[in-house]
Fold each of these.
Amino acid sequence: MTCALVALPGNEAFTATLAKALGTEVLKVTWHRFPDGETNLRFDTSPAGRSIAIVATLDRPDAKLLPLAFCAATARDLGAPRVGLVAPYLCYMRQDRRFVAGEGITAHYFPRMIAQWFDWMVTADPHLHRIHDLSEVYPIPTRVVHCAEAAGRWIKAHIDRPLIVGPDEESAQWADVIAQTAGAPAIVLRKTRHGDKDVTVEIPNLSEWAGYQPVLVDDIVSSGHSMVETIRRLRAQGLAAPWSVAVHAVFAGSAEAEIRAAGITGLATCNTIVHPTNAIDVAGLFIDPVRDLV
Ligand SMILES: O=P(O)(O)OC[C@H]1O[C@@H](O)[C@H](O)[C@@H]1O
């Protein structure tokens, strides 16, 4: 069975890179939004008889999900026997337990919705914290690509004498890989989250690292407050203005401006979400997992 890719609007560049590497076609889909806000889409190239992968990064997900679901349903309706999802950023991974009585556990519900529409999924560095493996919540085959080595190589090539800094214990998993790849030392701090935009970071005395270039690394920058608070604490100890390096450039609201205002040397992200700070191209990491599953 031949395969083909489809790009949800906004995912064209990533999809084109992936299609070229896979030696496959990107099907043309025309999207239209009716005056009442409803979505209309039309496959200009037929998906009949082809294994389809829809590429859709899922930051700001709520507005993307109906177009995504309709795209998958239309592909199937027009005769695609298999439809998969390539989601460079996977949403709804962080509400992985009931933090407050009465809350919904969306990290459990969202996978069931995706499994109604898709036969398989590939993503990059999903936020695995209390969920340790996507198979615990996704009832379809999934593959995960890891961007830490790519980030580590980028740091090695661009930053002198880096000191890798993970803002919290969750970040230890990628901070260690980044540090090893970059040939740099790493420290992991302790963070407590009190609210969406309210975190405190405990930081030991770092005077032994004077002369190093701190590089804050994280999987997601959302409100930016984990980065901002860590930058402030590092700077208060007289260390050099840090670099901030992240996989997923969610950058909600004024996050980027707040991070820059806190005093950084630079900001670099992977291209799992399109953003001007994208410096680390990870599209190639998706080739083998997509080839396995289409
Ligand atoms: O502090 P913001 O940017 O809102 O959120 C991102 C942080 O929250 C955690 O879940 C992520 O791993 C990251 O450390």
Amino acid sequence: ADITAGFGPFRDSESRLLRTRSSRINYISTYFQSMWSLEELAVRLFDAGAVRLGDIEAKIGRRTPIYFDLRVVVSHPQIMLSVAQHLQKLAREIDHDLLCGVPYAALPLAAVMSVHTNTPMIMKRKETKMYATKRILEGIFEKNQKCLVVEDVVTSGGSLMETVGTLRSEGLVVTHAVIVLDRDQGGASVLKQNGIHVKSIFTLTGLLKILNEAGKIKDETVEIILEHIKECQFSNLDFMKDNLEIM
Ligand SMILES: O=c1ccn([C@@H]2O[C@H](COP(=O)(O)O)[C@@H](O)[C@H]2O)c(=O)[nH]1
């Protein structure tokens, strides 16, 4: 079968070129691989070092017994593809014109989804560019377009809300986000209060169960983490109100 036929950007002459280069063929085959189960993806992420255990310093001085580091997936293209496929599955039911990844960890994931589904993407700069275009959002968009936000992890919901604030202040309509991990610390309900419905591939509780059953995380560690989640809950974003443009 011609696996490159009719595949989004690879058509006609490009498709012929791809057929002659075995490495590219392997890449395209990978694109069409059947999706990994959540269990397999969780174990692959763990083995790739995306789940760190210990007494870890997280954002703004918070400490956590578990830290999910999705930045490692750029070194593991198959894992990146699988994460993007699972995000895409969540995104299928959501009406959207554009994708926007929260910088930086979600940018490559949003880019893979964009290419795979032929959905235009925009990028939020961390700082407004001070020369030439002076833009805070890169890419082409129009007011009132529906933008789906892509994020790696939600704890308090603050990072995601910061991006949503910028998108809304530029006239985009933002009502949904697809994320890799909801840490079950209240962020998803905080976002809901601010008009954002979050769909996640994993919840932290679910991820722990999978990794515990796969023999990757001990029972005692699971208990410590579950206790931490219970004690460290967020019910609003008051602690970062000054940084949010629109809530
Ligand atoms: O395990 C984690 C926890 C957090 N992050 C990063 O922080 C933000 C999410 O935290 P909020 O409190 O919801 O803003 C997210 O953008 C991650 O980059 C993480 O990577 N891993």
